[in-house]
Amino acid sequence: MIEGLLLLLVAFWVAVDTTAWGQLLVSEPIFTGLLAGAILGEVWTGMVVGALFQVLWSSRAPLGGVLFPWAGPATLGAVVVAVWASPQTALGFSAPEILPLTGALAAGMGGGEMGRRVLGWLRGRRDHRWAKLAADPGRNLKRVRRLHLQEVIGEGLLG
């Protein structure tokens, strides 16, 4: 139960780290994997999965308005899959024990791509709210702050 609550808090933190608020680079896969592995008592597994996704997604370059796969939350889910699918306490690399890593890879890649698509859709919808707010000069700074906070919390809950 405590592990689940801690994982939810880390998921929220990792998702919020990808927004324009409080960026500490916790959403990098290597760090997210380490955190998830430590919570689940499988630090080595978390590091292996985190390093795998760090290498896979390290060539991301912020060009234009491109949306990347949602690497942080996807890595968190991949570590959970790897730990829960592992037949023993440590993730080994012999033939039957490679299956948890394969499951983690599939879950992480699928989750990252799904997160990218959902974020693209949500941010497209939010652009209309920001455009309406910018078009009305009578709006005040308090409304802008509230809308920004709603978006940060919304992305955190999505994580």
Written as H for each helix and E for each strand, in order along the chain, the element string is HHHHHH
Ends: how far apart? 19 Å
Mean pLDDT: 78
Oligomer: single chain
| Portion of residues within helices | over 70%
**Using DSSP, what is the number of strands?**
0
Secondary structure tally, helices: 6
What would you call the shape?
elongated
Task: Please give the domain count.
Answer: 1
The description of the largest β-sheet is: none
Share of β-strand residues: under 5%
User: Would you tell me the structural class of the helices and strands?
Assistant: mainly alpha
C-alpha Rg, in Å?
18 Å
Low-confidence stretches: none
Main location: membrane
Transmembrane segments: 32-53, 65-86, 98-119
Pfam families: EII-Sor
Keywords: Cell membrane, Membrane, Phosphotransferase system, Sugar transport, Transmembrane, Transmembrane helix, Transport
How would you describe the overall organization of this protein?
Keywords: Cell membrane, Membrane, Phosphotransferase system, Sugar transport, Transmembrane, Transmembrane helix, Transport. One of its GO terms (biological process) is phosphoenolpyruvate-dependent sugar phosphotransferase system. InterPro entries: PTS_IIC_man. It is found in: Cell membrane. It is a multi-pass membrane protein. The protein has one domain. It is built from six helices and no strands. By secondary structure, it is mainly alpha-helical. α1 (2-17) runs antiparallel to α2 and α1 (2-17) crosses α6 (141-158). It has helices at 2-17, 29-40, 43-56, 71-85, 99-135, 141-158.
